Amino acid sequence: MYFSRYFFHLIVLSSIISIIATLSIENTHNDINQKSRQKVETTSVNKRSREQNEKFHTADEDHLPSTRTQTYLLTMLPVAKGDHLFNSGGEQEWEIQRDTDTQFAIYGENLNGAKLSFTTHPKSCQWERKDKIYELLVDEKDPHERMSERAYIHLNLPYYNSTLYMCLTPSNSNEVFHQGNRPALKIRVTRSALPVWATIICLICLLSLSGLFSGLNLGLMSLTPHDLVVIQEAGTPNDRKYAKKIFPVRKHGNFLLCTILLGNVLVNSTTTILLDTLISGGLAVAGATLAIVIFGEIIPQAICSRHGLKVGSQTILLTKFFMAATLPISYPLSKLLDIILGEEVGARYTRDQMSALLKHTQTTDIEDREKLIMTGVLSLKGKKIRDVMTNLIDVFMLEANRIVDDELVLNVHGYGYSRIPVYEGRRDNVIGLVNIRDFALLDTESGKFTVRNIMNFYKHRYGTAITPDDSSYDVFNLFKKEQYHLGVVVEYDNTSEKDPKAKAVGIITLEDIIEEMIQEEIIDETDVFTDNRRKVRNMLSQAPDFSAFIRTATNAVASKISAQMKVAVFQFLSTSVEPFRDKFISAHILSRLLNVDLYKEFEFDEDDAKSGKITYIYEYGKPVDYFVLIVNGKAELETGKEKIVSEIGSFSYFGVSALYNSDEKVDDLIRLKSNKFRPFIPDFSVRVSEDVQILRIRRVHWLAAVRATYFENRQTANGGTLMLNSDGEQIDLLTQELERADHVDPVIATGSVAGQDSVTGGSARDRTSSLAPTIASDGGNPFIEYEKISTQNPALVNISHTTKMSTESPNTSGRTTPTLTGKQKRQIFRSDASASPPSLTGGSSSKNRSLT
Prior knowledge:
The protein is of the alpha+beta class and about 850 residues long. Among the domains are: about 75-190, Sandwich (Immunoglobulin-like), CATH 2.60.40; about 195-340, no CATH class; about 380-520, CBS-domain (Roll); about 555-720, Sandwich (Jelly Rolls), CATH 2.60.120.10. It contains 27 helices and 29 strands. β3 (about 85) and β4 (about 95) form a beta hairpin.
């Protein structure tokens, strides 16, 4: 706003100065003319005696010098010095600046010694003769002048408001001859219309206006009305205000253009004319060009190219003023342009041009990722489905007639796909679709359900008529309209004479198209692969691997436990039971441990129960070294002195203290050099009350899993370097640790008697290499052996109890747990080194059976 006010005041001031200067010039002209006449009269009075002696001769009728003299002038030409101009279009006279030295070459006859004077009278030198008299000296050094004589004269005349005619007085004569009205022998003395200071101010104003017009031409005309509308809706607060002020003027594009260009040409021309009054010749041209280019073009356009919106809004009043001032010329021209060229059209971009524009646009509030997403959306229409789809060879599919069992469910769950195509016969014959949630409520044990049954029941919709040449944009709209997320891409076989047959070549999902939009793979926490085509695995995948739970167990009891139940046991132990959390056993090791034959099944016999034969899982006061989780069935828990009996069911667990104490750390467990016998003496009893399946994990097996996890973590920390055996094969860490634990000498390592696995007569044990039967076999109960030996050693009746508290399940009490001292254990094993293991089924004098 201040900028426009400054220019407006400057223009008004210049106009006032011009008017005052013009009036002063006219008054000065009149005054000088009057003073000149008075001076002539005075001079005529003062020089009356001289004039009386002079004889004046007028020019003849042809305006030529008098024929009565041999002294006359032919012509005069300026020398390249001083300010002069020949007015060929008007009076055909020489124009020189007042009080300025100007050199002329005068040609004539008998000029040497002649005197040259001036008069404003067109016919006689007797009247209005001026005081300035010049004596002519012929240039004798110039040998080339043969036709006439040449004399040089330096003129420096005051301002006269009239044309000066020449009067010539021959040497040694008093006759004055008028040289006539010939074009080359007339002179007009001029002066500047404005003072120098006023001219400089006007030049500054004109250069400022030139710069303004040039800047507005770039700043305003580069912004289309469409651009201004966009800025008003989505620009910054200041830009919105500026655009709102400019828009009414910018709507009339051709009118504004004509006004700006007309004003620019006008001020540039005026600048050149004014500068010529200060500096003549080539300097005026060079100076005007330099000033207009620098101050009228380069600087303002550089400013307005960056701040054109602000400058245009601040000078909008000045622009409207010039539009009104040039209305008679610019408005008809603008209408003519509207008729010939039509209305102004804003910039138009193709998809590729828009993408390139976004790519190369430098902004502060649009990130590179946002630009990538926008270019991806713009390029979606040009992308074919064949470039986006997943090829059929890379698709996880199910055969329609396959039985739904545990293996299938776990495979589907392991891949992590939510929608799975179903084929019949050949993979390119896709007939339907199933969702992963369709398998949630199925009875996989019955073997009566096939994939076709599930597919026909749910009847999920999917795209069936998508071809590889379809546009990704069109398929995206199809997915939204039909409300499904997966389509089968088909090609038609036209080789046969029959109707073309569709053949599947791949699948396309809504996620695939969205990935093309955002130009990046969408990977969630359960994705196994980051790229289906190249099979690049997702190292951060949290998809659980349940492949270990597929039935491979040789033990009959373990084979009865369904894969779903094993998964449930795995999830329960890893989240609810402290010794099986990640800090002790990793999920990978735990899943494999639970698939080993560690399961037991007890059948309940009512007749035996009535006769007093009770099967115990835990018996009060009898030491054990295992943890038990009830998987299926029910049992009875007897606690307290009052022997309170409560019923317990699935996922009740006991014996956490048999595995570890709460003050033990992982490092301490890893550094154990031997699996010392550390029995857990329960202060409760758990007995079978119906058919029940349990998971029983001994401490040695749990420690083996802890060590396997430790070595697995070290292997991961070393960059995934695999541990190899002497044959160069990868070492199975869990199997290795379980075999070590299962082959430990019971006397030296565990301090327990392992029944059939015990060492008798100092001979080494003969162990089988198969892990499953070794672990699954009871091999005699070491704690029944302890009961047997204790009856034979009365000295061991007094067993000391420790005051350590065990971490038990909510179903157990919190009384202190009695444990054997090291001395008592060594005495037991020394005294029974040669004892034969008892049988569970034969010769037991006790009615109660403790099954471990």
